[in-house]
Amino acid sequence: MKIKFKYLPNILTVSRLISCPILIYLFYSYPDLLKNNILTLIILIIFLTACITDFLDGYLARNYNLESRLGKVLDPIADKALIITISILLIIYAKDLPQLPFFIIMLREIIV
Length: 112
Fold this sequence. Notes:
By secondary structure, the chain is an all-alpha fold. Helices cover 77% and strands 0% of the residues.
């Protein structure tokens, strides 16, 4: 049973990486995206799912001894990619949101 789930944390991490280009595609393909409630909901679901995979991959890796060297490298990259992607997209498309917090978050992700 353990062998079947051995790579599950890495699969979850890679799915988080894959969510970044999907989010970029949706934002660039639909310029009025944030005015469309259904598309906004889809983006929110993709983002929340990616956030949940961040929790799950770490939980599974630590609690079921499924940690790997690849996962230790990919996980922080996937985290940073997701946060920076969503921050840039919100800076570009959500003009009425204050942008300084997003710049600070991105700077922190790049530095740490």
